[in-house]
Amino acid sequence: MKDTEAIRQAAQIIRQGGIVAFPTETVYGLGADTYNPLAVARIFEVKRRPYFDPLIVHVAYPAHVKKLVKEIPSSVEKLAEKLWPGPLTVVLLKEKNIPDIVTAGLPSVAVRMPDHPTALSLIEESKCPIAAPSANPFGYLSPTTAEHVREQLGDQVDLILDGGPCAVGVESTIVSFLDGKPRLLRPGGVSLEQIESVIGEVQITPIQEDRPSAPGMFPRHYAPRTPIVLDWNEKNRDLYKSRNIGLLAFREPKGNLKFHSVEVLSKKGDMREAAANLFSAIRRLDTLNLDLIVAEPIPEVGLGRAIMDRLRHASSRGE
Ligand code: TXA
Ligand code: MG
Fold it and tell me: Using an 8 Å Cβ cutoff, are 165 and 149 in contact?
């Protein structure tokens, strides 16, 4: 099927109340018509996602945000101008007509304009903003290829649009504008540094184990089946003598390593490349029946903040 034909068919499915998996620059989303609560409910069902975890609404034009929110602060206008389309989600007070199921009953809504031609055409042809979480079962890693979606949700969605591997590879950065000062709810594909260069200081909410900063930010999230550890110490080696341990390395490791399997995120140590490879690399390790995945910590600057955030969530034992 040609791309344009597939998109047309997908848009028709969305307009008729179906659900479609589609590529974005960050990860694949599972979308429905924002204004169709039954269609949105099916997304929650298929993902087994708790209803208190709200969705992101995707638009094809910055101007369309006006219909979704009460007011657009000038800082959001500036960000939209500089960073949209792109991996930035803003949280603003919502208009009344957005169904509660989309926002989990919150008075706010999360909105973004994705930087992917397929996503943008799909939204445009559907003639409605598309509410979409990442297209993975709740709590598991987000998909960065159509194949990932097929493997986990294949028979439960009406159509999967294949746009190849996602260029960014980690989810969007979420910034809330609800209380005066902008606040980072989730680090992601646009760095905090980039955002601050446009609007000045952004408050950072630390990860709290008991109270998620964004409703969906549970301690254990983005998790593979195999346990991940971040604080590996070679002294532990004896304890794991007869075990199969995989290494998720940031850059090409030096020396001979005694790991069963090694995934290198970026040979040269490039953050962008590392982010783009992150979820696929973890998925590959997760298929090897390892007893443990050791993840190498990386510097928490730029995209490194999002990568470390995902690794921390993936390694958290809390459920
Ligand atoms: O890159 C992305 O953001 C991808 C692509 C598909 O756009 N989407 C994505 O969606 O990661 P999801 O549902 O996996 O994560 C959305 C996050 C959740 O943690 C949710 O709690 C938060 O956004 N969120 C949504 N609406 C919110 C709101 N009104 N206030 C605070 N957080 C909100
Ligand atoms: Mg998700």
Answer: no
